[in-house]
Amino acid sequence: MAAAAADLCRRSPSLLGRRHLLIRLLSTQTQIHAPPTPTTPADLSRLKASIRDAGTKPDALAGLFLSGLPHPAFLADRPLFALSVRRLANAGRRDLVASILSSSLTALPSPHPSEGFLLRLISLYSAAGMPDHSLTAFGLVKPPSERALSALLSAYHDNRLYDRVVKAFNTLPAELSIKPGLVSHNVLLKTLVASGDVAAARKVFDEMPDKAGIQPDIISCNEILKGYLNNGDDAAFDQLLKEITGPKRQLKPNVGTYNLRMSLLCAKGRSFEAEELLDAMGAKGVPPNRASFNTVIKGLCNEGEVGAAMALFKKMPEVPRQNGTGVSPNFETYIMLLEALVNKSLFDPALEVCKECLCNKWAPPFQAVKSLVQGLLKSRKAKQAKEVLMSMRKVVKGDAKEEWLKVETQFQLVLADKKA
Q1: Which letter, b or e, does each residue of 285-308 get, where b requires 16 or more Cβ atoms within 10 Å of its Cβ?
Q2: How many whole angstroms separate alpha carbon 279 and alpha carbon 263?
Q3: Rounded Cα–Cα distance for residues 309 and 392 (Å)
Q4: Helix (H, G, I), strand (E, B) or coil at 366
Q5: How does pLDDT run across 96-117, given as a tens digit for each residue?
Q6: Can you give the pLDDT at residue 2?
Q7: b/e burial code for range 93-103 (CB count within 10 A of at least 16 → b)
Q8: pTM (predicted TM-score)
Q9: How far apart, in whole angstroms, are the C-alpha atoms of residue 309 and residue 350?
Q10: What phi-psi label fits residue 216: left (phi over 0), alpha (psi between -120 and 50 degrees) or beta?
Q11: What single-letter DSSP state applies at residue 56?
């Protein structure tokens, strides 16, 4: 793969030739029926809304996408590109991903494809699980750049092609006269840690200043800390943590550093200490994020401190942030709390969490909801139990709906007896 990329990069086609070469290499020739191109801003808005509609079928989505391409405002809509690629990939239609992304090149004004657009393609193909297409896009970046190298390495890492990351890092820079920078080194560190070779990661980390002329930054340090955390090497973790703020490195811990520290404390059964660290972050000018809260909430739940976890959950909307206030829970937050509360037979707060989760159109695990409904019925709260059942019926989608209806039938007679 590295040799193929180097061969591509050594060619020097014109900008127009590069565009047609990329289209030929990436397109799968899938036939797509595209509706008429929208002619007004209102038409374009409706087209975008149709693409965002979860009910739009893959072929129809691809057709709508092609119809929007002549509009510069559509081409610039990165979130819509990402959403379209994700939905087509999730539907198993990578042929349509290849078609819409290759077609987007013909809609670009000269002198495209620019480096920036090709970097977008590398990332989008990676998100669709198409790293070979990412490699092709990388090969068309002229001249080869460190930004493109780091994007390709990230594509391989995100698709768990760890051997390819190491091979590309070791071969492409010399073949293409690219000097790997800090970002590429950090992707390599991340890859080595993910593959379990923390010793190799630490060797690269230590050699960066002398061998590459690059000082590791806080992200580099966090990757090594993550490796020590995964390996349970507390002594090495603590030693590097001291180095980060010491005279040797003089780095400022970021939210990732604090999250790793809290993960270590929670793993040791010291979640209340992690919660204190959570409170201290703001004073240090490092606002906690969702991962910070989820780490501590999970730790508290694992230690049976569900009341403390619920109290922390309620603090999330009040946390000061640089651009406002509040941290939003995600599906993981709700599920951790719901399961822990139900296991402790704390059905009133569990009902509160379940309702909030359902309001976000997230269906909790069936077993947790079943246990909650059983607890509500035993507590003579049949009305609330029925509301949960009906809300689940609205939120559960696809193949899971039939399975949920089987669960629901177990409660129909009981609910009727309770005259809910």
Answers
A1: ebbbbebbbbbbbbbbbeeebbeb
A2: 15
A3: 24
A4: helix
A5: 999 999 888 777 776 667 899 8
A6: 57
A7: bbebbbbbbbb
A8: 0.87
A9: 12
A10: beta
A11: S
